[in-house]
Amino acid sequence: MRFSVISVCWNYLDGVKTTTPSILAQKFKDFEWIIVDGNSTDGTRQWLTEQKLDYLRLVTIDKWGLFESMNKGLDHVKGDYFIFMNCGDEFYDDDVLSRIDKTITSAGEPPGFIYGDSIDIAPDKTRYYQKAKDYKKMWRGFFAHHIAMYYHTASFNGRRYGDDYKYCGDYALLCDLLMGFEAKGKNIVKVDFPVCIFEMGGWSDTTRKKSLFDDYRIRKNILKLWWPLPELLFVLHYGDMYFKKYFPRVARGIRLKKIKNKK
């Protein structure tokens, strides 16, 4: 199997309904969809069961936790590559997996990591084009959305999200992983096309203030940035957080390119 798509959810049936058509519309069919549900009480499990989806494996976790659920999904991966797709988010179009598969095939040696651009949807439904940055700028923060990242399962080598960084476990693992890939000369590929549609205002946005402290520790303990860079970045991101809070449209206008249509 080529791809495993992992989604985690808890009482977000509307998001599941948004994501489902995007998954099933993929022209490339060599994939599985793993949904880890935290015992939702809003009818999510019942709705998914009624759909009788060919590619779906529904997994239940008794105690909901974001990274615990992501780890549970990883335990069930069978694909050569895996991607996390948040409920409420979508593939950019029905050809995404086909294009990623061609990228893998043309690379010769399987890339350890692939990432690309995204379309961001603001709470007011305005669409923006989010260009992925060079991964070497990971010291500044996420260089692409997590749902725009494809991981080579074998190269991931059984890693799991830990609890040392409660709010930024994904950023911590990503930094550690890519630093290891660089040291080993593992191929890291950026594709110059959008691979996903991202719903802004999710969990990572609502916990941003607490995440800043995790970011600071990651830059010191994992990325090994020298003083005063971690401190300076903490201050800059703290100010940026409030700028986005009070002037969201201005902030998006500065960083993102507004678009009129989906494609």
Describe the structure.
This protein starts with a strand and ends with a strand. It has helices at 13-24, 44-51, 66-74, 96-106, 153-156, 169-184, 203-206, 208-221, 229-246, 248-255; strands at residues 3-9, 31-37, 56-60, 81-84, 90-91, 113-121, 127-130, 149-152, 188-199, 257-259. The model has no long low-confidence stretch (mean pLDDT 93). It is α/β, with parallel strands linked by helices and 263 residues long. Strands 1, 2, 3, 4, 5, 6, 7, 8, 9 and 10 form a ten-stranded mixed β-sheet that branches. The chain has a single domain (3-259), classed as Alpha-Beta Complex (Spore Coat Polysaccharide Biosynthesis Protein SpsA, Chain A). 40% of the residues lie in helices and 22% in strands. The chain is built from ten helices and ten strands.
Structural class: alpha/beta
Summarize the helix and strand pattern as letters: EHEHEHEEHEEEHHEHHHHE
Mean pLDDT: 93
Contiguous low-pLDDT stretches (5 residues minimum) are none
Keywords summarizing the entry:
263 residues; alpha/beta; Spore Coat Polysaccharide Biosynthesis Protein SpsA, Chain A; 10 helices; 22% strand
